[in-house]
Amino acid sequence: MFKHLFKLIWNKKKQNFLLMTEMLFSFLVLFAVFTLLVYYYDNYKKPMGFEYQNVWVISYNNAYQTKSTDSLNTYYEILRQNIKAMPEVRDLSFCSFNTPFTNNMSQGRVTYHKKEFYHMNFYTADDSYPATMNMQILEGRWFNKTDIVAKDKPIVINSDTKEQLFGKGTAVGQLISNGDDKDKMMRVIGVVQSIKVKGDYAPAGLGLYQRSDTGSLRWFGKIMVQVTPGANAAFEGRLYKTLANYMKNSNVEIEHLTNKRTSINYFTLVPMIVLSIVGVFLAINVALGLFGVLWYNINQRRGEIGLRRAVGASGGAVSSQLIYESMILATLSLIVGSFFAVQFPLLNVFDLSAGIYISAMLLAILFIYTLVFLCSLYPGRQAAAIYPAVALHEE
Amino acid sequence: MLKNYFKIAIAVLRRRKFFTFISLFGISFTLTILLVLTSFLDKVVGDSYPDRKRDRSLYVTHLQEDGKDGQSSSTLSYYFLSHFVSSLKTPVKLGISSTYEGTNTYVNNKKIAVNYKYTNADYWDIMEYDFIEGKAFNKQQIDNADKVAVISEDMKRAYFGDIPSVAGKYIEADNVKYRVIGVVKNVPITSYNLYSDIYLPYTVAKTDFTKGKGYLGGFTAVMLAKSAADVPRMRNEYDAMMRRIPMESNRFNKMYSHAESYLRSYVNTGNENTSGVTIVLTIIVIFVLLVTVLPTLNLVNINITRIMERSSEIGVRKAFGASSGTLVYQFLIENIILTLLGGLIGLILAFVAIQVINSFHLIPNLVLSINFTVLGIGLLVCFFFGLLSGVYPAWRMSKLNVVTALKAQ
Predict the structure, then answer these.
(1) Distances in Å between the alpha carbon of A17 and those of A9, A23, B404?
(2) Do B25 and A18 touch (CB under 8 A)?
(3) What is the 8-class DSSP label of residue A202?
(4) Shortest CB distance from A18 goes to which of B18, B207, B297?
(5) d(CA B335, CA B25)
């Protein structure tokens, strides 16, 4: 039977060609939209890795210039005590400028067993960082005072890094080198749950944490503060005054992570919404087009259908023949489309995992089939309702 | 004749209402998307408030330093701009301003987020901000390091509330009190090199920018030439200067920085190897193709169906001596009428969409509108569509044999 249907399609290749091109294009468009949606959803499902609700970020610059490391430490220790003394403050941590939900990045390359890993995020933070952010420590431990004397620089890695570098094996105790430098070995002392620093829809990425040393305070520019849930603007005003009066030469800004999360998410959500609207519009367009063309084709073929009915085909057989025909047309264009789509995981374009492309492809295929099926359902039923006598009489 | 075709077209459109709907839907929706996109681009890069002298300005926004161990790229330092760039002969003015940065201020236990920006005096001579009250600070005030500020309309409302005049009042930001001497019309944040809530003299900054000797920092500059004809000379002089000045340190062996037109500086990626213009153009072209190719294909499909349905009409007209050319002409006219109709609907839809987008306040101070540029582009797109989706079906129709055409019915 399929051979016969192919022959029918082949006989009208000129007419079907346009229809097929349209299906092919809609498949490619849907593939692109679905890839993006699947990618975002995949990231969205993963845990955030920390609690941002009551965390504020304080930015400052150029606070205290001194050559003496001791007085630098004292200066910031007093500041820490001053902030900590406030009843609304639970914990705080001085850290590098690449705090969550900013566009700031500090990336480098690490080598493990001669394998290179690019785009490794380097975070620098002090001992109270995980407590401030409510981070989960999965293996080993976070930094403490004993790490000052360690021979190899102690680091904590995130779970994404662990998966990439060590797979299922243990990470604690392993040595990683910073770039190509053999002398700069770093020893993993703990693994933390990856945190999605670029918002809900972006991957956490590779990350490693280094303990802040005495010199770090010179270039640090951020303080993360976890406040009690009741902390209000009046308290924020007080905190601000305290900071601004203490760091006279500095520009101070307090931001809430909740707001920063909203705005960074917005940058992924808006393009996603725009693309989805465009995708839906194109799908409606294609559906209407398909519907119109199929409907017209059936009206054109009244004679042929009437003849089939006259020699004994049932209404169901006629309508399923038409549905089969359009499904075969869809299959042909999907095969061509899949050929293009499958290049993305094969050539590793855009560095996304193959699973995302494959699920997007399956979704797009399913979508096209459903669309074509629904669009040929009504014309098919109409064809089934053709009376052989009437149709043949017209001829 | 044209009137006749018009009548036929309307009659045809009314006969098969479903097909007419499909065609109109496709055209109008595509046009809506394109119009909203154009109006957005027109506003973001086409709107020249406050830098109305773009035709004789060049913008310096990035410096990239390459070395063996890597590269760094950033906006420039005050030292670099005031020391090297200001020595150029062609520019008559050099406006220097910092990138905007945030701080907070607290009024009556309410928090206001403030973006501030430091500028020099020339900046105010080049930029034509609309002053609602007061005026900009001058060179004298900058040299005295007077704590004066020019604020935006929004800032005035947020900080002082609805009062008629604020000139002379004090505004506190970053724990410092500044005297407000001017209020300017808002600049959308999308003009990120000119946007700010508070503009301050660079001499009142807590950091002394004039001290450091590094090349990278938080500043950008606008160079103004005497006339548009001087712009290429200004660009060449800048390039010559870049070749001349010494490396910042021996870690680097190459240095790139360009004086660019507004558009180029706007999309500058900060990376010498990947031009922002190429990236943006590619994205726009792909997007436009995406939204136009499918509806066009659809339209071609529908049009073929429509025209073939009328084969008896074609047959009769051919039999009475109409040439293929006349018929193609007629169908093209019909199609263009259809597209124009769709265009009109699209315009209305775009207008509604823009109102909705504006009401959401997605981007502060960005108010989209349909102007003549947008309208013209819409019209052009309509004609293009009409021709594109009409030519192929008309051509196929004209190939139709008289006998077959007549027999088909």
Answers:
(1) 10, 10, 22
(2) no
(3) S
(4) B297
(5) 14
Residues in chain B closer than 8 A to A19 (CB atoms): 301
Q: Hey, what's the torsion of the CAs at A37, A42, A44, A48, to 10 degrees?
A: -160
pTM of the prediction? 0.79
Contacts 24+ apart (CB under 8 A), B320-323: none
Is residue A313 packed enough to be buried (19+ CB in 10 Å), middle (13-18) or exposed (0-12)?
Answer: middle
**B70-74 sheet: strands from edge to edge:** B70-74, B63-67, B252-256
Tokens of B389: 């989706």
Tokens representing B397 are: 């129709």
Instruction: Quote the tokens at residue B191.
Output: 């003009």
Task: Tell me whether residues B294 and A241 touch, CB distance under 8 A.
Answer: no
Query: How buried is residue B51: exposed, middle or buried, by Cβ count under 10 Å (0-12/13-18/19+)?
Result: buried
Residue A104 touches chain B, beta carbons under 8 Å: no
Residues in chain A: 395
Partner residue opposite B111 with nearest CB, options A233, A282, A292: A233
**Is the four-CA dihedral A57, A58, A60, A66 of positive or negative sign?**
negative
With an 8 Å Cβ cutoff, are B301 and A22 in contact? yes
CA distances to B81, B216, B271 from B247, rounded to whole Å, are 15, 12, 18
Q: How far apart are CA A75 and CA A87, in angstroms?
A: 21
Chain A hits for B26, CB-CB cut-off 8 Å, are 285, 288-289
Give, in order, the Cα–Cα distances in Å from A373 to each of A34, A330, B332: 20, 9, 33
Which A positions 292-321 lie with beta carbon below 8 A of chain B? 292-293, 296, 300
Across the interface, whether the CB atoms of B175 and A236 are under 8 A apart is answered no
- For tokens 């509604």, the residue is B352
Tokens 């890993």, residue located: A117
Contact A253 B33 (CB under 8 A): no
C-alpha A375/C-alpha A387 separation (Å) is 22
> How do the pLDDT tens digits run along chain A, 395 residues long?
677 777 777 777 777 787 888 888 888 888 988 998 999 999 999 998 888 889 999 988 866 777 788 888 888 899 999 999 999 999 999 998 888 888 777 888 888 888 888 888 889 999 999 999 999 999 889 998 888 888 888 999 999 999 988 888 888 888 888 876 666 788 999 999 999 988 899 888 899 999 988 778 888 889 999 999 988 888 888 898 888 888 888 888 888 888 888 888 887 888 888 888 888 888 888 888 888 877 777 777 777 778 888 887 787 888 888 888 888 888 989 999 999 888 888 877 777 788 889 999 999 999 999 988 888 888 888 777 777 777 667 65
What residues contact B27, with CB distance under 8 A and at least 6 apart?
Answer: B295, B299, B338, B339, B342, B343, B345, B346, B382, B385
Dihedral sign for Cα atoms in the order B80, B82, B83, B87: positive
- Which residue in B2, B199, B300 sits closest to A17, CA to CA? B300
If DSSP codes are grouped into helix, strand and coil, which group holds residue A104? Answer: coil
Sequence letter at residue A263: S
**ipTM of predicted assembly, 2 dp:** 0.71
DSSP B399: T
Q: Which of B78, B103, B110 to mutate to test the interface with A (most CBs of A within 10 A)?
A: B103
The single residue listed with the structure tokens 């006998």 is B403
How many pairs of residues across A and B have Cβ atoms under 8 Å apart? 105
Within A343-384, residue ranges assigned H as helices are 343-347, 354-384
Q: In the numeric block, which tokens belong to residue A106? A: 């500090």
Distance CA A235, CA A89 (A): 10
d(CA B391, CA B383): 12
